[in-house]
Amino acid sequence: MWVSNQSSLDGFILLGFSDRSWLETPLFVIFLVAYLFALFGNISIILVSRLDPQLDSPMYFFVSNLSLLDLCFTTSTVPQMLVNLRGPKKTISYGGCIAQLYIFLALGSTECILLAIMAFDRYAAICKPLRYPIIMNQRRCIYMATGTWISGFANSLVQSTLTVLTPRCGQRVVDHFFCEVPALLKLACTDTHVNEAELNVLAALLLLVPLFLILGTYVFIARAVMRIRSAESRWKAFNTCASHLLVVSLFYFTAISMYVQPPSSYSRDRGKIMALFYGIVTPTLNPYIYTLRNKDVKAALRRALAKEFWVRTR
């Protein structure tokens, strides 16, 4: 096995859309702008959630975790993609590919679980308002967030290891923008049914189970919201939940279309488009979805900007 993978130690060639060279410059601009927006949006959410005392709540604790995750998510792939889009060489080192594979999968797995925990937080806040401070106390929130990150990285360790150990017989050309499990499994020169079965089982656990839990949670939330008499309170609850549901839809359905099927059945370009969507588009949009639809976050941002302006003009 070591001999069959020896040539890959020199690195991999990432094709991306190199067969459509006219797309590379527009894609470079789009990815660069998206990455800058992702950096600005996610860093702003993290800072505001940490510094503004009015956002010191479980909801914004988990939102800041999501922003940190999305910040790392985009950084694990986009800089390398930008280098390959502008440079003549479309390569990535062997170590860089393995690191990218592990980190990207770990962060994606973590986000699957984190979104389910955020749905539970909304359920506790809306359906159990009197017990909410007890249910979602600070220690429990920290334990839940820590468990989420550990679970995501543990899942990635299993999947990444099995993927890396699959014999590739010297094949180095990856038909993708970055190193991802389905793309690397396509390089295998042996039967990959065991890997594909393992991938589907873990994908079902990390994608379908949390998704069904989220949908079930929102059934109870919808019932509780409809019983709220105050129109203003009902609208606030609906607005907060709508932001979370939009994030869930953007992430889960694109990820499911990639991972809950055998990698051998992926179409050539569809897989790339889906990966770009949940790997770049979703992490870029998440902070703006929460910001633009949330009065508390917008008010906190205004207070932070006003404070900064006051300090500079003294």
Automatic annotation (TrEMBL):
G-protein coupled receptors family 1 profile domain location is 41-290
Q: Which PROSITE patterns match?
A: G_PROTEIN_RECEP_F1_1, G_PROTEIN_RECEP_F1_2
GO CC, alphabetical? plasma membrane
Bilayer topology term: Multi-pass membrane protein
**Classification via InterPro entries:** GPCR_Rhodpsn, GPCR_Rhodpsn_7TM, Olfact_rcpt
What GO molecular function annotation could you give as one example from this UniProt entry?
Answer: G protein-coupled receptor activity
Main localisation, per the record? Answer: membrane
Q: TM segments?
A: 27-48, 60-78, 98-120, 141-158, 201-221, 242-261, 273-292
Q: Where in the cell is it found?
A: Cell membrane
* UniProt entry tagged with the keyword Heme: no
For this chain, the family text in UniProt reads:
Belongs to the G-protein coupled receptor 1 family.
Q: Which PANTHER family does its entry note?
A: OLFACTORY RECEPTOR
Task: Report the protein's function.
Answer: Putative odorant or sperm cell receptor.
Q: What is this protein called?
A: Olfactory receptor
Species of origin reads: Muntiacus reevesi
